[in-house]
């Protein structure tokens, strides 16, 4: 079955995403690189490629392609919670603390293929591919993204 058909099938039966069942949902989806390969989008104006695979009133699913040594902008997620599954490669999740007028780098977490991590609305982060090979991540957000902000970290 095609991966987007699989997503439609899984989410037809899920009306509301809770922290507790995202792991089950990811397991049901258990995307491999081959499943998502044809949906990968090359970077255009940003360092990474971004493709919305599914969106309804409650959920948004994104596929992110981070080429070697590329990173996302520093951002938060507005009112959305997100769950990020590493489909291929590895990623450094760079975490920032919000100050009065800027953000400051705080720490990082390292995730590899098959691992899942989460972000809350006010989590301010960037994702960085520290390796020579491609990184692909699948993101589930609830509610859909909309009110997040981008930050320029203080160097
Ligand atoms: Fe994010």
From TrEMBL:
Residues that hold Fe cation according to the record: 75, 77, 125
InterPro entries: CDO_1, RmlC-like_jellyroll, RmlC_Cupin_sf
Protein family membership: Belongs to the cysteine dioxygenase family.
The keyword Transport is annotated on this UniProt entry: no
UniProt-recorded Gene Ontology molecular function terms: ferrous iron binding; oxidoreductase activity, acting on single donors with incorporation of molecular oxygen, incorporation of two atoms of oxygen
Pfam families linked: CDO_I (PF05995)
Keywords in alphabetical order: Dioxygenase, Iron, Metal-binding, Oxidoreductase
Signal peptide: none
UniProt keyword Lyase, yes or no: no
Name of the protein in its database record: Cysteine dioxygenase
Taxonomic placement: Bacteria, Bacillati, Bacillota, Bacilli, Bacillales
